[in-house]
UniProtKB/TrEMBL annotation:
Region of interest (Disordered), residue spans: 222-247
Species lineage: Archaea, Methanobacteriati, Methanobacteriota, Stenosarchaea group, Halobacteria
Protein name per Swiss-Prot or TrEMBL: 3-isopropylmalate dehydratase
PANTHER family cross-referenced by the UniProt entry: 3-ISOPROPYLMALATE DEHYDRATASE, 3-ISOPROPYLMALATE DEHYDRATASE-RELATED
InterPro entries: Proteasome_assmbl_chaperone_2, PSMG2_sf
Ranges of Polar residues composition bias in the record: 231-241
Length: 247
């Protein structure tokens, strides 16, 4: 049975939720993991949506097993983070999106969905643009001067399913898309995502120097997950692509 089970009591008021599902360049996951660690966020809830793999996750030095998809919370910053250690399959994505979106709406949270856009630009910082599921959310992006898309495109995979579900049900939602390495984990793109999008939207000041300073180490640590993502079908990996690629 689909459910999100609370594990701790944290006082939140219309929080911002950052989505960190594995996808192109692992940009959303890298950014979310970084925020969870840096802000020492509290394990807030376990996610048990239909179609998610039954995987128990444990950490170095910690004997407690937790589900692969979890929510973390920070009362001081009024922040939620959706952390996942497994990809969400294409077949599970619609049900997962329905499960998560219903819960987000009930919390009166603003979801910020994160995706990589394949590119090899050496521009610094990496280009980031934003899309929205409602007019109110689009106005928020405009107020913060987050760039609009420069061409037609589509977000695939579970992140795309989350955006589509929010748009369908009228839930305010924002998609942040950053140019990222199409083959390998991209800490620089994750840092740009935080600096240009997540930070302003959530009203938080996060130090991203570690993402940049430890880029090679982080890439090596995340290489195995990235290979699993490459082995999955294209529509199982969250990524944004120009719309012409589908025509």
């Amino acid at each position: 049975m689909a459910r999100i089970e609370r594990r701790a009591e944290v006082e939140l008021d219309a929080p911002t939720l950052i989505e960190g599902l594995p996808g192109l360049g692992l940009v959303g996951k890298l950014a979310t993991d970084h925020l969870v660690d840096q802000f020492e966020m509290t394990y807030y809830a376990s996610v048990h949506c239909e179609g998610l793999p039954g995987v128990g996750v444990y950490r170095e030095g910690d004997r407690i097993v937790r589900p692969a998809v979890r929510l973390y919370a920070d009362a001081e910053r009024n922040l939620l983070a959706l952390q996942s250690d497994v990809p969400v399959s294409a077949s599970a994505a619609p049900g997962f999106a329905e499960c998560i979106t219903g819960w987000i709406d009930a919390q009166d949270a603003l979801p910020v969905y994160c995706s990589g856009y394949p590119g090899q630009s050496e521009a610094e910082p990496r280009p980031v643009f934003g899309v929205a599921t409602t007019d109110d959310a689009a106005d928020r992006l405009a107020e913060l001067d987050v760039a609009a898309p420069s061409e037609n495109g589509a977000v695939a995979g579970p992140t795309g399913a989350l955006l589509e579900r929010a748009a369908e049900t009228g839930v305010d939602g924002i998609g942040l898309i950053v140019e990222s390495d199409p083959q390998f984990p991209d800490p620089e793109a994750a840092a740009a995502l935080i600096e240009q999008g997540i930070g302003p939207l959530a009203g938080v000041d996060a130090d991203v120097s570690e993402l940049r300073d430890r880029a090679e180490e982080i890439r090596a640590q995340k290489e195995q997950l990235a290979r699993r993502m490459q082995q999955a079908a294209t529509d199982e990996s969250s990524q944004a692509q120009p719309l012409r690629m589908f025509q």
